[in-house]
Design goal:
The structure is a single chain. This protein is mostly beta strands. It is built from no helices and 11 strands. Strands 2, 4, 5, 6, 9, 10 and 11 form a 7-stranded mixed sheet that branches. It has a 4-stranded antiparallel sheet with strand order 1-3-8-7, with no helix packed on it. A hairpin with a 6-residue loop joins β5 and β6.
Length: about 120
């Protein structure tokens, strides 16, 4: 029902910024919540942020509040994650995922469709 592709991952310095994007190919008219999750080798995947399509409600993990901003362009079917004030611990593979029931919750089990991930590396 939906295909996702992340882009924009790169190398950034501590304190720097990156914007990653999730391009969405929708095969139906359903509304989706898009979530961003991240995972490093040997660690569990964790929720970073999510945004609903119905009203743009957002969630942020405590670790990124005030630094990351999620936004979506429904006309272009793209969701962005603007990451400012990057820290070493933000180094991860970032995945976007879709919840086809548009629940706006950061629970991995609710997301049925996942992208392949984009690598974000914060290093000096």
């Amino acid at each position: 029902q939906v295909q996702l592709e992340e882009s924009g991952g790169d190398l950034a310095q501590p304190g720097g910024s990156l914007r990653i994007a999730c391009s969405i190919t929708k095969l139906s008219a359903q509304s989706y919540t898009i979530g961003w999750f991240r995972q490093a080798p040997g660690r569990e995947r964790e929720a970073v942020s999510c945004i609903t399509e119905r009203d743009g409600s957002t969630f942020y993990a405590d670790s990124v509040k005030g630094r990351f901003t999620i936004s979506r362009d429904n006309a272009e079917n793209i969701v962005y994650l603007q990451m400012n004030g990057l820290r070493f611990e933000d180094t991860d593979v970032y995945f976007c995922a879709a919840d086809i029931f548009d629940r706006g919750l950061p629970l991995q089990r609710l997301y049925d469709y996942w992208g392949q991930g984009t690598q974000v590396t914060v290093s000096s």
